[in-house]
Amino acid sequence: MNMNEVMLDGMAEAIRPYFSHCYVTWNSGNFYTLVASNSLPNFKSFMTCLGDPAIPNEFVYGTVPRSLLDECDPRVGPSS
């Protein structure tokens, strides 16, 4: 599995040229769910409809959702 594994930093660099906004919405171990969009209004609408992530406590390694590309949290609103 290591030969075909993509690290999260590498995924961010691959996504950055194509999408303005990307968030990690779920993770468990080295598996992640990402949501990406160029439309901030559509992105915010989608993110506010998500429920809390279902992750067993022993597999929680960070806060989700969290931005992969920027510091703006669509649940709160843009920082600028």
Shape: flat
Rounded average pLDDT: 81
Q: Ends: how far apart?
A: 40 Å
Provide the number of structural domains: 1
The structure class reads alpha+beta
Individual helix count: 2
Q: Please compute the radius of gyration using only Cα atoms.
A: 13 Å
Could you tell me the number of beta strands? 3
SSE sequence, one letter per element:
HEEHE
As a percent range, the share of strand residues is: 15-25%
What ranges have pLDDT less than 50 throughout 5 or more consecutive residues? 73-80
* Strand order of the biggest β-sheet: 2-1-3
Helix content bin:
10-25%
Describe the sheet with the most strands: 3 strands, antiparallel
Give a brief rundown of this model.
By secondary structure, this protein is an alpha+beta fold.
Please outline the helices and strands:
Blueprint: H1 8-15, E1 21-28, E2 31-37, H2 40-49, E3 66-67
Antiparallel strand pairs: 1-2, 1-3
